[in-house]
Amino acid sequence: MAAEPPPVRFGILGCANIARKVSRAMILSPNSTIVAIGSRSLEKAANFAKNNGFPVSAKAYGSYDAVLEDPNVDAVYIPLPTSLHLQWAVAAAKKKKHILLEKPVALNFKELDLILKACESNGVQFMDATMWMHHPRTPKMKEFLSDSHSFGQLKTVHSIFSYNSGDDFRKNDIRVKPDLDALGALGDTGWYSIRAILWAADYEMPKTVTALPDAEFNEAGVILSCAASLRWDDGKRATFYCSFLTNLTMDIGVLGSNGYLRVHDFVIPFQENVGPFYVTANTKFAELSIGIEPAPTEHKIYTDLPQEALMVKEFSGLVSGIKEHGSGTEKKWPTISRKTQILVDAVKASIEKGFEPIEVVF
Length: 362
Fold this sequence. Notes:
- One of its GO terms (molecular function) is nucleotide binding.
- The chain is of the alpha/beta class.
- The chain has helices at about 15-30, 40-50, 65-70, 85-95, 110-120, 135-145, 165-170, 185-200, 305-325, 330-350, and strands at about 10-15, 30-40, 60, 75-80, 100, 125-130, 155-160, 210, 215, 225-230, 235-245, 250-255, 260-265, 275-280, 285, 290-295, 295-300, 360.
- Strands 7, 8, 9, 10, 11, 12, 13, 14, 17 and 18 form a 10-stranded mixed β-sheet that branches. A 6-stranded parallel β-sheet has the order 3-2-1-4-5-6, with helices on both faces. Strands 15-16 form a two-stranded antiparallel ribbon.
- A hairpin with a 2-residue loop joins strand 12 and strand 13 (about 260-265).
- Helix 4 (about 85-95) packs parallel to helix 5.
């Protein structure tokens, strides 16, 4: 029997709150480990490692550069503010470190193209940290959408991701600071809904994107809520709403000519070990229109590992293939990231141009 490849050795750039969750995933994943963390403060990095159960051998550094210089680091996870992604992702790629990058991956697709070019020229794997893509529920839902009898032809998608974290968040969080994360709710919650629409449409890009009127902003001009409509040449339509101002909601609704799929917790499952979704197929009104038949069915997809650990596991498997077997990088993930970023940019452009339709160029 062939020996298992050694675990992929991660370094983490920064001590963002989301890094607590992803570092836990690195510990839970069977093919990864944490060997380093860097912060602008050595004390902060050391405390983060101690408080989050890092291996005792993990090194703490007082700079991001030190992590990239560490020869024991195979890959880096970058949860820094979006305005810093270009600088540090390119620096990591030049040091031959594979990159797991928080979303939104860049401030615009031109920045992302520079990141992807650096990854391509240095032979490093790129993946964004959109965790729900890696839950086993996701391919199961796609099986239903691909069933021509039960679902039929895709007609429309609607997605909502919103949460209300209160006044302190809206005044002080990095996601509302124009110099740190200028895309605001569009880059944070909107990223997920746009990805959901692309996923449902098999990543076929729409023809036009039109932001809907009355987007909301903070005093610094950062988006706090917005909505948009997407149109394809074949008649498909999609809409989404994203917000920092409304109750926590994480819905996808996908309507086909014969069926309908709905999931209420697509971003973060309500329970870590199970992801439910609901489908109806070939539905009719019952006699006297006092109900419907057949009734909607619920499907529960169980998992031993949380979705973020499955993300790390998949990413680490790709890195191991490159390290141990000379495999090429997987192009699917950077392509999906680029398509998502282009649509984020299009929504932003539509808002800035008075909610005019923006033709999508890919």
